[in-house]
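A reminder from the course coordinator: this example appears on the midterm review sheet, so study it carefully.

Given structure:
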């Protein structure tokens, strides 16, 4: 099965999870690059505003065509209790080209249920697996705590 991990990461935590999933599954990965920056305190506020208003910011053209993959694993940080706006733009831009999907997210305190439901709606596909990690499960130096590694391994096993 040919799979692709696609993600956006503002702080690096979601990117770290994406790299671990791609390495575990031996698949390619692609980062989503928004044309607008979300760095610093104003970027944080913009991110939350865009997410809660379901905005679709411009992103760079994806380098991979999802139609060439059996499975696309989509990763997002939770912004304003929902999908990060660059990930929303990616999913909307891909239309119904997804064959199979799996989702993962990193979150501070918000529930993952709403975010996963929104991702499913945007992809028009139910995920074959989901993974939610709290940012506290990734240590400050961006290394994983043991429980996070167990969750990632179980997620990877569920998508094989």
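Designed residues:
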């Amino acid at each position: 099965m040919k799979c692709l991990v696609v993600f956006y990461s503002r702080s690096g935590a979601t990117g770290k999870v994406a790299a671990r999933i791609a390495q575990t599954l031996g698949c390619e990965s692609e980062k989503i690059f928004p044309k607008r920056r979300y760095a610093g305190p104003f970027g944080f506020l913009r991110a939350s505003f865009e997410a809660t208003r379901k905005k679709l910011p411009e992103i760079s053209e994806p380098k991979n065509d999802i139609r060439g993959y059996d499975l696309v694993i989509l990763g997002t940080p939770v912004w304003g209790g929902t999908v990060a706006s660059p990930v929303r733009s990616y999913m909307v831009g891909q239309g119904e080209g997804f064959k199979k999907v799996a989702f993962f997210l990193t979150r501070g305190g918000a529930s993952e249920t709403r975010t996963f439901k929104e991702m499913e709606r945007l992809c028009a596909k139910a995920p074959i697996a989901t993974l939610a990690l709290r940012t506290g499960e990734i240590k400050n130096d961006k290394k994983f705590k043991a429980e996070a590694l167990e969750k990632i391994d179980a997620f990877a096993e569920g998508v094989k």
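The mean pLDDT is 92. Residues 26 and 143 are 20 Å apart (CA to CA).
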